[in-house]
Amino acid sequence: DSTELQYGLDLARMTLKATTAEHDLLRDKYDRASHLNRALARVETALTGSVFVVCASQVGDDLAQWRGYAGGAGYAIGLLPEPLAPESQVDVRWGEHMVEPRWRHVVYEPALQHQMLMDAWLTALNWTEPQDRVPEDGPFDWEGWYRMVLQGLVAIVTALKHPGFESEREVRFV
Q1: Contact, 25 vs 33, CB < 8 A?
Q2: Which of 21, 33, 66, 114 is least crowded, fewest Cβ atoms below 10 Å from its Cβ?
Q3: Taking a C-beta distance cutoff of 8 angstroms, is the pair 84, 103 a contact?
Q4: What percent of the chain is helix, strand and coil (3-state, nearest 5)?
Q5: Would you place residue 72 in the very low, low, confident or very high pLDDT band (cuts 50, 70, 90)?
Q6: pLDDT for 153-168, tens place per residue?
Q7: Which secondary structure element, helix H or strand E, spans residue 88, and what is its range?
Q8: How many separate helices (H) and strands (E) can be counted in the chain?
Q9: CA distances from 124 to 7, 24, 130, 146, 166 (A)
């Protein structure tokens, strides 16, 4: 259900506004606020297509799941849990250029969701610190930066879900 992604995107937008205000980025001579907003726009564009291969519940046989998702008819597919064991947390490898597809637990706790996104924005912001730039290295590689931020934020945003659905104990293969 692609509408579930809107929850994570809304949180990403909210935490980006907080980051922008906290670091006074609207007056930043390097225009980092615009770059962070463009990064979020790229995340939104990336998430308009199909993102999930599989969403599953760790709850074995739940009547609420059948009612909510099977529409009165359908099939249950059982999977052996060992080869599909999710990571204990969302594992975003910021230093690499690709976030590996894997099973991930959905995060329902609002404080943890907020912290994950704030950490992501601060990491992205720190990568753009002017004092880290060496003139002989040439201009800052904004395209490389966008790719890394996009991959990290997509992994986080797709793992967030409204706390009201916590009983689903969802895992996603992203």
Answers
A1: yes
A2: 21
A3: yes
A4: 50, 10, 40
A5: low
A6: 988 998 999 999 898 8
A7: none
A8: 5, 3
A9: 21, 15, 13, 9, 29
Give the type of residue at 63: L
**What is the distance between the alpha carbons of residues 64 and 119, in angstroms, rounded to a whole number?**
34
Rounded CA gap, 131 and 55, in Å?
43
Calculate helix-pair angle for 4-22, 142-157, nearest 10 degrees: 130
The answer, as to whether pTM is greater than 0.85, is no
> How far apart are the C-alpha atoms of 69 and 145, rounded to whole Å?
38
The DSSP annotation for 120-135 comes to HHHHHHHTT-GGG--G
DSSP 128-155: T-GGG--GGG-S--HHHHHHHHHHHHHH
Ordered DSSP codes for 53-87 = SEEEESSSS-HHHIIIIITT--------TTTTPPB
Angle in degrees, 0-180, between the axes of helices 110-126 and 4-22, rounded to the nearest 10? 50
Are 169 and 59 contacting, i.e. CB atoms less than 8 angstroms apart? yes
